[in-house]
Specification:
Layout lengths: L1 H18 L4 H4 L10 H19 L3 H8 L10 H12 L4 H20 L6 E4 L2 E4 H23 L9 H10 L1 H8 L7 E6 L5 E4 L6 E6 H8 L11 E3 L3 H7 L5
Length: 251
């Protein structure tokens, strides 16, 4: 767990640096997450961190009950539920949102480190390994760090901790197809280049479908923030286009 928690800490530190010294107009800036300000994005991360803390402590349903106490059960999917939770709790002082998020980051890291990587934990999409939960928190924090940075007009440099997110995207391809109600694709391999120039390979090179290119581009596509047409990704094989259309790194 140490490796994924260290990567998560680095990502949280990148977001903390963006938020440091931010004034109220900065917190109110629209983020790249449609309909949400920078403050809303940070509130959402605090809320979902608190959900993950509950999961790591075997109290997921209790954590959810506390978070949704003021939310009417009208959500039809995970994304709608997240929007309702933010709407129910937005509007507080930015300093309080900031402190809540920072506290949740610290507690979450400790809760994850208390678990073995293979421990089965309850989450929105069902049970998952503790390591996978940590990776989904890294992925979501990375996505929303980018959303906040876009709203603030800050360009961020990608880092090799994206390896964890690219691996998550590859491993959860069947889940993405399940969510879309589509039959699973055949074997697929990723042949990616890290921001540092290192090579990242997932899957067997003999797979009939191979997706190649910058690892950062693949992660952006999986986060649904950049269309494939705006990336340097290339591919061969029968399932590549459907995979790139459905791939995701969150529940």
């Amino acid at each position: 767990m140490e490796q994924i928690v260290a990567a998560l800490a680095e990502q949280q530190e990148e977001l903390a640096a963006l938020l440091a010294g931010l004034d109220e107009p900065g917190w109110a800036q629209p983020s790249a997450c449609e309909g949400w300000s920078v403050a809303d994005v940070v509130l959402h991360l605090a809320q979902t961190n608190e959900m993950a803390i509950g999961s790591a402590r075997d109290d997921f349903h209790g954590a959810m009950a506390r978070l949704v106490d003021s939310v009417r059960p009208t959500a039809t999917n995970v994304d709608d539920g997240a929007a309702l939770m933010v709407a129910a709790q937005r509007g507080g002082p930015p300093v309080a949102v900031h402190e809540r998020w920072a506290r949740s980051c610290e507690v979450l890291r400790a809760a994850l480190l208390a678990r073995a990587p293979g421990d089965r934990l309850t989450w929105v999409a069902g049970e998952m390994a503790a390591r996978t939960l940590g990776t989904t928190r890294l992925a979501e924090t990375w996505i929303h760090t980018g959303d906040a940075a876009a709203g603030l007009g800050v360009a961020l440099e990608p880092a090799d901790r994206l390896w964890h997110i690219a691996r998550l995207a590859w491993r959860t391809i069947p889940y993405a197809f399940d969510r879309a109600g589509e039959p699973h694709p055949g074997p697929v391999a990723f042949e990616l280049v890290a921001p540092s120039g290192a090579e990242w390979s997932f899957g067997e090179p003999s797979a009939p479908t191979v997706i190649r290119g910058p690892g950062h581009d693949l992660c952006q596509v999986a986060s649904r923030r950049v269309p494939v047409s705006d990336t340097a990704l290339t591919w061969d094989g029968p399932d590549a286009e459907s995979i790139l259309a459905l791939i995701r790194t969150w529940a």
